[in-house]
Design brief:
This protein is of the alpha/beta class. The protein is built from twelve helices and nine strands. A nine-stranded parallel beta sheet has the order 5-4-3-2-1-9-8-7-6. The chain is globular, with a radius of gyration of 17 Å.
């Protein structure tokens, strides 16, 4: 079983959901991103999702785009991301990587899978890669024992959903809304229905992303999903802070609030 699978099993035994916290690699700097992700783990985040910054994102909202732009302007590269993954994995928390496909293709699919596994990464979330076009990645992930997480959405047909989750390993990423990432005042009503549809065709854990920004929202999602995925709200802690110390303090506070939320799910 993957390390992600172990994390979901442990949380399920504890009667709660897993908290997945997302942060772009190299934001605000390489060392700063390591410090931020380590702080998130120490404050109760179960799984870290490290995003490889990319200049032409498909699903990232303005907050993640801005953070990624800062990382790219600072010169972060895929090799830096692998070093960050290794450092964060050393905390003991499972680390999954979210990336658009072009950086992996440029690096070399097999070489990237090899180096990701060597760094301690558990697998990839690939928002712009569909299973029909993922033959090279399916083979490489099998060769190096990595998870692969494809996305499903409220617009996925039953046939499309079943085919997609059949190619997933580790967990399934259910996008709660149609649109780009970003914390919202209200969680999508479509999310519980989508999670229920996924559970009809797989026993894999289901993580819900896009929109969660408070402990109360995390508790609501934890009431029906196996994992609560939070990105923009955590990143904003650093973006809005006047200095690194206050940013890390805000990040710890929100991480702890979200961690408490997934531990007190709302039925």
């Amino acid at each position: 079983m993957s390390r992600i699978g172990v994390a979901f099993d442990k949380a399920r035994a504890d009667g709660r959901a897993v908290l997945v916290g997302c942060m772009p690699a190299g934001f605000p700097t390489v060392e700063g991103s390591i410090a931020a992700m380590t702080a998130m783990v120490e404050a109760g985040v179960d799984v870290i999702e490290v995003e490889i910054p990319y200049s032409d994102p498909v699903m990232d909202g303005p907050v993640i785009q801005k953070a990624s732009d800062i990382a790219l302007a600072g010169g972060v590269r895929t090799a830096d991301t692998l070093r960050i993954i290794e450092a964060v994995a050393a905390t003991g928390a499972p680390v999954v990587t979210m990336t658009y496909w072009n950086p992996v293709e440029r690096y070399g699919v097999d070489a990237f899978a090899r180096d990701l596994a060597s760094a301690g990464g558990t697998g990839l979330v690939t928002p712009d890669l569909i299973p029909e076009e993922a033959g090279e990645w399916l083979a490489a992930s099998d060769a190096y024992g990595l998870d692969r997480t494809f996305l499903v959405s409220p617009s996925s047909t039953d046939a499309r959903l079943a085919m997609t989750v059949a190619h997933c390993r580790g967990f399934v990423y259910a996008t709660a809304i149609m649109g780009v990432t970003g914390a919202r005042a209200k969680i999508s009503d479509a999310a519980p229905v989508l999670v229920s549809r996924v559970r009809e065709v797989t026993d894999l854990p289901v993580g819900v992303g896009l929109g969660v920004g408070t402990g109360a929202q995390a508790g609501t999602v934890a009431g029906y999903a196996d994992g609560v995925i939070v990105g923009s709200a955590l990143i904003r802690c650093l973006l809005d802070a006047p200095d690194e110390a206050s940013g890390l303090a805000a990040l710890r506070t929100l991480s702890a609030e979200l961690a408490q939320g997934v531990r007190t799910p709302t039925p």
